[in-house]
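fyi for ur records
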Amino acid sequence: MSDSKPRLTLRAPRPAGDPAASPRSGGAARPPSAGGRGPAPGGNRDAGDRRGPGAGPRRGPGGRPGPGGPGAPFGPRGGPGGPGGARSGGAPRGGPRDDRRDDRRDGRRDDRQDGAAQDDQRFSTRTGIRTYNVPSERTPIPVKRPMPAPGAERRPDRGERPARAPATPRSEDGVDTVRLNKRMAELRLCSRREADDWVEKGWVRVNGEVAEMGQQVKHSDRIEIAPEALGQQEQQVTILLHKPVGYVSGQAEDGHEPAVVLVQAANHWHGDTARIRFNHSQLRGLAPAGRLDIDSVGLLVLTQDGRVARQLIGEDSDTEKEYLVRVTYASAAGEVSQNVQAVFPTEKLDLLRHGLSLDGEALRPAQVDWQNPEQLRFVLKEGKKRQIRRMCEQVGLKVVGLKRIRIGRVVLGQLPVGQWRYLAPGEQF
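which gave:
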């Protein structure tokens, strides 16, 4: 009689260190493959295998699990499988895949991200302990600098340096030098443009030798001008024009003609005492030496001579210009146009003489006095754009008429409006 009791099959316990088989997608562990085959080599995964988790085991021919599938115990990559098989990195298998990295890869990553505080740490898959590198005095800790507030002045970086002022040119013996054209203008020989023209033509010598363009000279150097240059300079003219209202001093603008169009034979004053004959070549290079706005009348200088232009409008010019200015005053009781002198405060007159600024720059002291109860007399040593009108506005005055009557020692005199005359050879500003 056969025994109907079911048989119990006992299995030996799994050796220590032998990981359990990977679970199947259904949750149950898969038995070893049939036939008692040994574990298949676990070579490198096919580069084309891009299946995600839960996709199931790979299948070989006949539906069998392929090599390296879950039917065989996991072995080290590139080495034979089997219980207790050592990995090339020395760490046991079975941990999460993100932790399967060897020390060499950790070292390379640390090298690439050296200097960041969060990368001063390493995780060992062998011990499961994360270690941190303690910064020392030689290890700089990156600090995030706050952004500057809008409009705040940016602090220069350590690598930036303030721009140095250009060094003053010096000769071989250490003496300061200047460009030749600048030195010739300082000596009032000609303008800088004329100097360059003369040097180009070979009309200038320095210490007996022909000068060159851009040459540096010392103040003690001897500068000689050829007779040809002096003869050309003698042909240059300076014209004094009584400019009327409605003409601009320089280039035409806003439909208004430049004052130079009035310089023609028909407008030459018959009382001119200079023995100079007019010809159209005298209009070539004729330029205003100073401004007189469109609403003003009086003496306007037009010249071909760079020396005259420098004397009148150069940076170091100290030539006086005299004006007669008719004004009205906006008082508390209303606008005053008669006997303005009687109601205009004395302290405001003092401000006109000294204490005002234009465009953020303090003005030079000026002479300002009453010529008559409605007219002031100004004497200035500078000529900013619409200077007198803007000065008067700051003290409550309105300019209703402005006439320039003198520049240096040259006066307007009896010259009629719209007519002109030559600056005589012996006449100087």
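The longest helix spans residues 103-112. thats all i got for now
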